Amino acid sequence: MDNEEYGVIAEAYENGFRVVYSFDNYLPAKEIVQKFPTLLVIKFAYDGSENDGMPSTAGSAIIYAFEALLDELVDDGKSFSAYTKTGGNFREFVHYTTDEESYMNSFNQAAKDHKRYPIEIVFYRDPEWTDYTKLMEDFAEDS
């Protein structure tokens, strides 16, 4: 591993809340970038009112259960996990996938036995992985 390829946990302040980002500081192989041209943002709402916008211990347990579901889809080759963003009463899971329809079919199948989660799912076309690259650049400027 190149010494610039490492996991990063970084903090920022947004709308008065501390926000924690977690990501790997490199793009994956070109084949993976080409395979997943669609940016997928899953926003998981939680009540962080008693913890300065961060999830409580009980809230974290529910988020981790949901994250395990997403990890199954990553392991099955349905998406690539780019980064997470936690704070301000939301956790965002940012992934890349092939396309909206295929991902949603896989997601709904994987989640069929789960309780309903407080999520919002949005897809964007991002074949150059501009969102992820910008995140890495933003935090590289801070170091």
Topology (elements, then pairings):
Elements: E1 7-14, E2 17-24, H1 30-35, E3 38-45, H2 57-75, E4 79-87, E5 90-97, H3 100-111, E6 119-125, H4 130-142
Helix pairs in contact: 2-3
Structural commentary:
By secondary structure, the protein is of the alpha+beta class. The protein has a single domain, classed as Alpha-Beta Plaits (2-Layer Sandwich), CATH 3.30.70. It has four helices and six strands; from the N terminus they run E-E-H-E-H-E-E-H-E-H. Strands 1-2-4-5-3-6 form a six-stranded antiparallel β-sheet, sandwiched between helices. A hairpin with a 2-residue loop joins strand 1 (7-14) and strand 2. Helix 2 crosses helix 3. The chain is globular and about 45 Å long. 20% of the residues are buried.
Element string (H = helix, E = strand) = EEHEHEEHEH
How many strand elements? 6
Radius of gyration, Cα only, in angstroms? 15 Å
Termini, distance in Å? 20 Å
Give average pLDDT, whole number.
92
CATH fold category name: Alpha-Beta Plaits
Order of strands in the sheet with the most strands? 1-2-4-5-3-6
For the sheet with most strands, the description reads: 6 strands, antiparallel
- Oligomeric state: single chain
- Number of helices, where a helix is a run of at least 4 consecutive DSSP H or I residues: 4
Unreliable sequence segments: none
Shape: globular
Helix content estimate = 25-40%
What's the CATH class, please? Answer: Alpha Beta
Could you say what the CATH architecture is?
2-Layer Sandwich
* SSE-based structural type: alpha+beta
* Domain unit count: 1
**Proportion of strand residues:** 25-35%
